[in-house]
Amino acid sequence: MKYVIRDCVNCNGLSDVNYPECKACIKPANDLDLIVYKNKLFSKQHFRKDDNYVMYPFFVDVLMKPLKGKVLASYDIKDAKISIIKRKEHLQPTYVLKIPGLDKNYDELSELRNNFENRNFSNALLNRWIKQHGILDYLLTDPKIQEININPPEYQTPFMIVHEDFAECLTNIYPSIDFLNYLSTYLKIESGRPLNKAQPQMDGELYVENQKARVGAVVPPFSINGIGYSIRKHRELPWTLPLFMQNKTLESTFSGLMSFAIAHGRTFLVAGPRGSGKTALLGALVLEILPKYRIITIEDTQELGIDYYKNLGYDLLALKVRSALMDEGMEIPFDQGLRTSLRLGDSCLILGEIRSKEAKVLYEAMRVGAMSMTVGGTIHADSPFGVYDRVVNDLGVPTGSFKVTDLIVIINQIKSASGFHRVRRVIRVTEVLKDWQDTPVFQDLMVYNAETDKLEATDILLNGGSILIKEVVSKTRGYGTYDAALNDIMLRAWVKEKQVEVLGKTPKMLEGNYNMKVNMLFAELFDETNPLESKKNEELFKKRFEEELEKIN
Description:
Number of strands: 24
Oligomer: single chain
Largest sheet: 9 strands, mixed
Helix content: 25-40%
Distance between the termini: 59 Å
Strand content: 25-35%
Mean pLDDT: 84
CATH class of the largest domain: Alpha Beta
Shape: elongated
Number of helices: 16
């Protein structure tokens, strides 16, 4: 427990409504673990358990508790020192942030206070904590932090993070009520969406420098103890399939298969639980669309790298619609936005997430052939049947309409035997068969093998059993046979392997701008050499591709 005291009634020191006297005038109740003293210039936190005091300038709105333990790793972020420590009393590590320069003397604090009251933010420290995002400027620019969870009530629960190297971590940072309220106000102003007792939950975006994050906020009465947040960071640049291959999330055959499916206008859904990497994978698949084609994206909270795609030269129209969490508002409802997009011409359609009545409109459009190019999206489910159950039983799409889904890609987190470690992996690529009535029939084209830690092609894919490939062969000139189409997939897989092998020596050369160059190179050489016509042509294609790949810069 804690209390805050201001302006003492006895000595003009510090007090609070509940405790109108300062520490010099009262003896705090024994159940108080933390006492926060505030005045015009500073706040002083007293940890009664170990009788320690921490003082911060008036503009700092979080508590950074000093902690000690075995140091597992350390690095710098901006002017701050980061230590990952192991404490005996906790299973998970603790992320300790220490910011120098906060130990100001009285005269320095007085000057900063005058600057603040006169709206002078020339001081970098004052500017960061008042005009920018304070503690979030550090956390969101730490490239190793993937997620931040902030739970109420204030001062009692530390920020929790998901760290790239140490997974779930405690921190030494505790939010104040000022911080919780500030972030709520910022999100409401930036998004234009309500967050109040009538609408106690909201999705929004947070931008710090070049870093974008999705923020989920909850307030009373939905959140019992106060305002809470979940902040999920997005990679500054969108993921690419070669980057995913490099960290073993997926294999080259998967890249070849999805490149083939997208090139031939197939429909796919990327499914998985929260935090599995669905949107990141969808963003990587967007980069497999050649920039000659128009793309329409529809999202309620922007997570795809729209500006990045545009800067690469993509003909892209981004639409933002009302959150599924909101019954009404100024934004266009998702289903209406989708209907509008279908009248905007022939385009690839990418949906950030399918989770409401817009699913009916999407499947209606796909079933009548309104979308002649690839359609992709994400959905919360952990199996192909789970996708069917969600789409048909929860979202009301007719059973027959579901058959227009060609591929379902399942991505999930794989845990170690101890449960301490986890990695993201694509675990299944499944096609939806078309010849069934009431119960869906699926067949796996690729399945994750836990022993080899690889996504492996099934005999169905390799031995002529894929319905998707057969349909492409029947409607496309230049293949003729199933084996020819399979060779195309394997050639695309070979290209991705070479891309990782050659360009992966320089990490930045696996990013989206280089990925687009490689894809365009593939398309141009494919047309010039016709590698599927003969073994000789295939060898010529590979030789020229490797020569041109070396020249990419």
